[in-house]
Amino acid sequence: MTHRQSLKALAFLLATVALSGCNTAERLASVGRAPALSAIDDPTASADYKPVRMPMPDPVPVNHAANSLWQQGSRSFFKDQRARQIGDLVTVKVNFKDSADIANETKRARTNSDSMGVPNLFGLETNAQKALPGVTPSALLNAQSTSASDGVGSVKRAETLATNIAAVVTQILPNGNMVIEGKQEVRVNFEIRELIVGGVIRPEDIENDNTIESMKIAEARIAYGGRGQISDVQQPRYGQQVMDVILPF
Fold this sequence. Notes:
By secondary structure, the protein is α+β, with helices and mostly antiparallel strands. It has 5 helices and 6 strands; from the N terminus they run H-H-E-H-E-E-E-E-E-H-H. The protein has helices at 3-20, 22-29, 125-131, 229-234, 238-246, and strands spanning 89-116, 141-172, 178-188, 191-201, 211-213, 218-228. It has a 6-stranded mixed β-sheet. The longest helix has 18 residues, at 3-20. It starts with a helix and ends with a helix.
């Protein structure tokens, strides 16, 4: 390899690293080291955090009963250990099992055949032949068409996820429902498995042991994935992803 070719190869390598962005620099800096865990932060302080707004019923005035130990809205005379205010924790039992098996087939066929002729037209067919030499009145038009289509599609999917995760109450809605958000990271060797759960729950759906089923979460957002060396190998390269977006075929 000549000196000029070496300079071109080095320039191409530097351009590739520059185009790949700071993510490549971070990956190069962490070569030989396990991925770092994320810092524990306030979810509401994130730039992507947005308070949840849901349709609310009309507020109901609170009526206090004189000389009564019972407080309206209380579930017990004793302290309730279940989550009820911002900052409390609640354990979400994620039990997600979904399967689908769909098969569709559509077939369509059509055949058309049209013919038209005027063998006899009060004797005027002879005049037509004289006016238009080469025209045969008995075979003026003969058309045929055939079309057919066959479409087959199928979907087969099965997903199962069963685990527990602790979530934090980040917001109390006007009707008493609570917005929760939880994130869990587990590092195994050089791979981080990440589980994120969020949504709106009712205090009445929380069990006595301060747990709630994931199926009782409204507007549920459940994400399970990973990042690290194994996940990185399974993803296509940046150049391939760019070409998949740009190329029209």
